[in-house]
Every structure is written in C-alpha cells, then in structure tokens.
Amino acid sequence: MRFDDLHEGVSMMRHLATKTERTCDVELQASESYLFFCLDGPAEFQFGAMYMRPLPANESFFIHNPSKTLKAVINMSPGDRMIGIQLSIIQMHQLFLPDDGRMEALAFLSNPDNQRPIYDQKATEPPLLTLLESLFDCVLDNNANRVMNYGKLIELLGKYFYTPDPDLVACPFLKDEETIRKIHMAKSLILDQWQNPPTIAKLAELVGLNEYRLKAGFKEVYNNTVYGYVMDTKMNRGRKLLGAGKLRVNDVAFEVGYTNPSHFIAAFKRQFGITPKKYMLTKR
C-alpha cells in the first residue's frame, strides 16, 4: 500500500481491492499517526497472528502508537475501497495544537512524554462521507490537483477531530443530559428509517421533545439540520449505489426513498455538482 505525499508530513493512500489484490501490507511508523476510512466493507486489520480488528463500512480507525512501529495486513473484499491518511507528529502539532498548548480534543498532543497508544474507531458521519468520496475520485496528476486535494484533506481532518461543545447560551436546555440523550435518539431513528424518515413532528413525538427543542438541539449537537442530515444520508447512499453500477438511476432513486426519480436527480446534482447519469459514466 503506497501513500502519496500531498504536503510535508501529510500523505494519503486510496486502495480499491480486487480479486487478485484482496490484502495489503502497511507499516505504521511510531513517528506518525494514521487515520483509515472504510468506504465499503467490512475490512479487517490483522496485527500479527493473534489480534484482528474488524472495520465495518462507513467507519474510521485512528491509530497513534508513539512507542513502536506496527505491521498490519488489511483484508478487504473485491470492489471495496479504503482511504488512509498518514500524518507526522510534527504536522499534527502544527495543525491542531494552539500556541498555549491546550486542546482537549487532542490531549495526547499536549504531553510529548505521553507514550500511551490510541486506537479509536467510530462511525463516519454523512458530511465526511461526501468529502471522502470526492477524495477517492480525485486525480493526483499535477500540482493544481495536489493542492486542491490537500485542501479537502485538511477540511476532512478538521471535521473529524473537531468536537464542539454545545452552545448552552443559544440552547440553554442542552444543559439537561436527558435532552441530549433524546437528540442522540432522534439521530438513531433517522439512521434506522433514512429511506422513509418520520416527519419532524413525529420524530419529536417519538423522542419526547417539542419540535423547537428537537430542531435547535439537533443543529447545535450535530452542526446540521434534521432535514440536512437526512439528505446527506440519502445522497451518500445513492452515490454508493450508483458507483457500484448494478442499478439504473431510477432504481437507485426508489432505493433511497424517492417516488419521483427527477427529484432524486435534482437533489443529487445540488449535492455533488453532477447528475447521477454522468457520475455513473465516471465509474466505468
């Protein structure tokens, strides 16, 4: 597996598994941090003979082990894709550590003597999936593309590591842990029923909040509206189905919950700047 340099201390790899190349070997240097995104899946990270870690589709895996270099074998199914990011510790400091040396979200950077390894796995949110799809499809054949994709990568890293605290001034009711729990429940219900999600009124009823608290709290916690989150989920799912090339545009529209394919086509173009048909042609 080869990482392409985008900037000093920042590299990216894109891997598409085939029938003859279902596994790839990676050497994870102690002086680097690594972030892997599984776009399809599942994939498996095999660390030696005794330990295997699965990585389902649409999940990420952050690896930071400053005490030793690791060797791993990544097993994937044909047609599955993965993006990997390699960051030097120096570059991590430059990107994320402010002058005062304090940053709770990346606390391990604040203490250079901290040798504790970090293996963090979590779901990839729809806005990140859109960026990842764009990065996977990019072409690194000239300096302009390299600069453009470096910008996308920095945006991706910023969104991945940024975990804002809820604005308790704008949403004072978020001081209530029960309210936050109900907002998390609303997100889970959306993901369970994304093809035909409940209305705002029904969703508010299901989680036990009034509509205002649901909409304002969801926006504050997830930095997206309820409607925006549903649309991101639908469009990313549609893009994945189109890229697989097994369904027609109309079939994909129905699969993601549209009764009128023209509405799906218009929404897809607004989201990605290309029609579903043209997107399918780029994948052939």
Produce the secondary structure layout:
Blueprint: E1 4-7, E2 10-16, E3 23-28, E4 32-38, E5 43-47, E6 51-55, E7 59-64, E8 70-75, E9 81-88, H1 89-96, H2 107-110, E10 118-123, H3 126-137, H4 143-161, H5 177-192, H6 200-207, H7 211-222, H8 226-244, H9 249-255, H10 261-272, H11 276-282
Antiparallel strand pairs: 1-2, 2-9, 3-8, 4-7, 4-9, 5-6, 5-8, 7-10
Helicity level, as a percent range? 40-55%
Q: Give the amount of beta strand, in percent.
A: 15-25%
Structural class: alpha+beta
How big is the Rg? 20 Å
Distance between the termini: 23 Å
Count the E strands: 10
Element order, helices and strands?
EEEEEEEEEHHEHHHHHHHHH
Report what the structure shows.
It is a single chain. The chain is of the alpha+beta class. It has 3 domains: 4-161, Jelly Rolls; 172-223; 228-282, Orthogonal Bundle (Arc Repressor Mutant, subunit A). The protein contains 11 helices and 10 strands. The chain has helices spanning 89-96, 107-110, 126-137, 143-161, 177-192, 200-207, 211-222, 226-244, 249-255, 261-272, 276-282, and strands spanning 4-7, 10-16, 23-28, 32-38, 43-47, 51-55, 59-64, 70-75, 81-88, 118-123. The strands form 2 sheets. It has a 6-stranded antiparallel β-sheet. The chain has a 4-stranded antiparallel β-sheet with strand order 3-8-5-6, with no helix packed on it. Strand 5 and strand 6 form a beta hairpin. Helix 3 (126-137) runs antiparallel to helix 4 (143-161) and helix 9 crosses helix 10 (261-272). The longest helix is centred in the middle third of the chain and has 19 residues, at 143-161.
